[in-house]
Every structure is written in structure tokens, then in C-alpha cells.
Amino acid sequence: MHWDAPPKPADLTEQRLITAILDGTFPPDSHLPAERDLAQQLGVTRPTLREALQRLARDGWIDIQHGKHTRIRHIWTEGSLGVLSGIARYPDHQPPEFVPHLLQIRLLMAPEYAAMAVRNNPGQVLEALKPCLTLPENPGAFTNADWNVHLTLTIASSNPIFTLILNGFRELYLIMGARYFQSEQARSFSRGFYTDLHACTLSGDFGKAEKVTRNVMARSINLWNQISGGEG
Predict the structure, then answer these.
(1) Which fold, 95-227?
(2) Which of 69, 206, 222, 231 could form a disulfide with 118 if both were Cys (CB 3.0 to 4.6 A apart)?
(3) How far apart are alpha carbons 48 and 65 in whole angstroms?
């Protein structure tokens, strides 16, 4: 039997501090308590707290300056991709417009990496699409297949930055997908997308692959807004 390793104290400390930032316990431009006091409040050692704080500083959540109190950054104007991927792991604390904004970014990126993938590595694309042509009517199957298709497209594009960005949202992508693919219309959209992209790849028409991808990404935003009650 496989047993999951328990979370490390520094990991739990980091998670608790991120949650406190996102829920407003520590608002932007506020300061964290002194290290000794904060460690006591969290029930951890000071070395554990320092490790968690260094991670948060690295990812753009806080600003550590020697001799000064640690400041909470304005994450939407001072944050980085580390903050963005962190927010994606905490769906209960995301602003309502977060997912629609993320889908807009996918609309900008996906047509480009799909076209590049079809042009640069069509064999990889065809291999990823093959199981998608006979998917069962199951939200879980569609969620996993869709993730694999987009991940493969980023890798096959030969631009690793696309892959790094997408991987930052894996957990949120799977959560969203499980909800999105409950819709029969969503599954139908994606079936059509996989079929059309497969045809584009076979013919080597990367220009059409870009258009097909752009169309389905735009339609998915509208459908997500309907599914989620018009959020964003």
C-alpha cells in the first residue's frame, strides 16, 4: 500500500500564510508580526517560519527587508507568476473574475501554441488527439483528455514557456474541467475541437489550427460564464 507523506511544517506554514493574505487577514501594505510572535501564533519553530517566508518572498507575496517589518505586497500589481499559480491552488479565496480572466489568457495563448505544435511536431499532436476521438461521455475522461491535449500542444510548440505557464494552473484546470465538462454542450464543443484539430494536423494546415483553436477557446469562455452563473 502507498502512503502519502505528511505535509512538511514549512509547507503548512506557507499555506496558512497564503490563505491569510488571500482572505484579508494580512491586507496589502500591512506588516506581519515580528518573527518570534508570528512563529508562536503559528505553532512552528523560527527556522520553519523563515523557510516559509523565504518562499513567499521568492514568489512575490511579501517583501522582506533587513531591519524592517515584512510587508504584504499588492499581489495584483506587484506579484509574479509565482503568485498567480499560488492563487490557482486556492479556489475558495479567488475573486469571482479570476477564472474568466484566466480563460482570456488561454484564448490569447492557445491558438498560438496549437499552430506552432501542428507546424513543428504534428506527430506528437496526432498521438495526443487519438484517444480524444473516442472519448466516453464522462466529465472526468474529458477533463483529463483536455488537459493532456493542451499540455502536449505546449510541449510540441517547442516554446517551453507555454508549458511552464500552463503547468502553474494544473490543479485549477482539473477542478474547472470537472465542473465545465458536466455540460453536454461543453463536451460537444471539445469533441468538435479534437476532430477539427486532428484534421488540420493531418493536412499540415497550422493556420486553420490557429483559427479552430481560437474559436473553441472563445466559445468556452461564454459557456463557462453560463455554467458559473455569469461570474466575471
Answers:
(1) Four Helix Bundle (Hemerythrin (Met), subunit A) (1.20.120)
(2) 206
(3) 19
What would the pLDDT profile of 39-87 be if each residue is shown by its tens digit? 999 999 999 999 999 999 999 999 998 888 999 999 999 988 888 888 8
Distance of alpha carbon 150 from alpha carbon 147, whole angstroms: 5
- Half-sphere exposure of residue 11, counting CA atoms within 13 Å on the CB side? 4
CATH topology for the 9-79 domain? Arc Repressor Mutant, subunit A (1.10.10)
Where residue 4 falls among pLDDT bands split at 50, 70, 90? low
Distance of alpha carbon 17 from alpha carbon 55, whole angstroms: 11
Is-contact 88 108, C-beta < 8 A?
no
Q: Is 212 helix (H, G, I), strand (E, B) or coil?
A: helix
Contact 224, 103 (CB under 8 A): yes
